[in-house]
Amino acid sequence: MRSVLIVYHSVTGGARQMAEAARDGAGAEQDVHVRLLRASEAAAADVLMADGIIFATPENLAAISGMMKDFFDRSYYPVLDRINGRPYATLICAGSDGENAARQVARIATGWRMRSIAAPVIVCTHAQTPEAILAPKRIGRVDLARCREVGAAMAAGLVMGVF
């Protein structure tokens, strides 16, 4: 049985919804075990056990969230040179463009020598005021379908031996 780890952080619910959609997509594959973990709970051991990983984070102040950064800080060196070639994908919930957070995850994954299986899914909420930024998010059906597709592609690729 293959395994997919989805590590996420979310305060307003957007990145959580995206991560859950990816979980649902990956979970549709029969021979795949899917684990959905908050970044604060995930550790290097979880990364080492996973055959593929999906990272879901909001973009905060043009960067990944602090809790996602904390996860990478805690996991980076214990995992270095031990997950070379493993597939990953990125889901970003952003108020504007999300590109910097996506680049940040890509740089970290490159250091881990992982390989991306898809372009980052960036969902722009257009939240620009303090009230809109802090308000609970509701990710639309089309964007959730994109996240499900990423999860399904990860799981199918692992089962078929493509990744």
Q: What is the CATH homologous superfamily assignment?
A: Flavodoxin domain
Uncertain stretches of 5 or more adjacent residues: none
Task: Work out the radius of gyration.
Answer: 15 Å
Sheet-strand content, in percent, reads 15-25%
Query: Taking all residues together, what is the mean pLDDT?
Result: 97
The structural class is alpha/beta
Query: What is CATH's topology name?
Result: Rossmann fold
Number of helices: 6
Provide the CATH top-level class. Alpha Beta
Shape: globular
How many strands, what sense, and barrel or not for the largest sheet?
A: 7 strands, mixed
- Number of individual domains: 1
Share of helical residues: 40-55%
The number of strands is: 7
Distance between the termini: 14 Å
Tell me which CATH architecture applies here: 3-Layer(aba) Sandwich
The sequence of SSEs as H and E is EHEHEEHEHEEHH
Describe the structure.
With 163 residues, the chain is α/β, with parallel strands linked by helices. The chain has one domain (2-160): Flavodoxin domain (Rossmann fold), CATH 3.40.50. The protein contains six helices and seven strands; from the N terminus they run E-H-E-H-E-E-H-E-H-E-E-H-H. It has helices at residues 14-27, 44-49, 66-79, 99-111, 130-134, 141-160, and strands at 2-8, 32-38, 52-60, 63-64, 87-94, 115-116, 121-124. Strands 1, 2, 3, 4, 5, 6 and 7 form a seven-stranded mixed β-sheet that branches. Helix 4 links the parallel strand 5 (87-94) and strand 6. Helix 1 (14-27) packs across helix 6 (141-160). It starts with a strand and ends with a helix.
